[in-house]
Amino acid sequence: MGTHETGDHPPEYTAAQALARLKRGNARFLGGHARFPTVQKDILAHLAKGQRPFATVLGCSDSRVPPELVFDASFGELFVIRVAGNVLGPSIEGTLQYASLHLHTRLLLVLGHEGCGAVEAAIAGRFHGVLHDRRIALLLQEMDPALDRLDQTLPAEALLGAAVEANVRWSLRQVIESPEWKARMARGDAVQAVGAVYEISTGRVRFLK
């Protein structure tokens, strides 16, 4: 996390501005007009002095879903946390708290993606009795509550799509109901938590209502 953070400065972007910036970035990415094919040395030198990202992104570790590329964001613009299935856990929650207390990002985006292997594995364990290796099983336990209201009679593809979205909403719910998030709201921080699903087949990010 570095020793030269600039977290004592107020955030430069409101949550609404940060969300709009993510949407514009994905539009450029979709249109083939990404801004950052390379990074200049002077930019890297400036970033060595500290980081001031405009948003925090909790995403999946899937190699096909790099948030910086998806949102056409350069070095230092996004504080990205990636874990299989974009699930929460103690280490993830600690990292989110760091972003809140020291980087003061006002927007948190939970980014799932279509065809998520972790969600598919959770479905297999929950509905089909598939057993997973111990550590993987522990990770999948984090998303099990997201599957509670799913209709398991849906076709496999539809069930997976519904589960991906439900898992994003479950992670969002845990954040919003956490004491830390409620404390920020009580302080009057203009924070926002948003969910989205990345469509691997098109490159489009679908923001959830």
Describe what this molecule looks like in 3D.
This protein is α/β, with parallel strands linked by helices and 209 residues long. It has one domain (15-207): Carbonic anhydrase (Beta-carbonic Anhydrase, Chain A, 3-Layer(aba) Sandwich). It is built from eight helices and five strands; from the N terminus they run ααβαβαβααααββ. It has helices at 15-31, 41-47, 67-70, 90-103, 117-128, 134-141, 156-176, 179-186; strands at residues 55-59, 78-82, 107-113, 192-198, 205-207. A five-stranded mixed sheet has the order 2-1-3-4-5, with helices on both faces. The protein is globular, with a radius of gyration of 18 Å. The two termini are 32 Å apart. Residues 1-7 have low confidence and may be disordered.
Topology:
Layout: H1 15-31, H2 41-47, E1 55-59, H3 67-70, E2 78-82, H4 90-103, E3 107-113, H5 117-128, H6 134-141, H7 156-176, H8 179-186, E4 192-198, E5 205-207
Parallel strand pairs: 1-2, 1-3, 3-4
Antiparallel strand pairs: 4-5
CATH-assigned fold name: Beta-carbonic Anhydrase, Chain A
**Major β-sheet strand ordering:** 2-1-3-4-5
- CATH-defined architecture: 3-Layer(aba) Sandwich
Number of helices: 8
What is the terminal-to-terminal distance?
32 Å
Describe the structure concisely for a colleague.
By secondary structure, the chain is an alpha/beta fold.
List keywords for this structure.
single chain; 209 residues; alpha/beta; Beta-carbonic Anhydrase, Chain A; five-stranded mixed beta sheet; 8 helices; globular; disordered N terminus
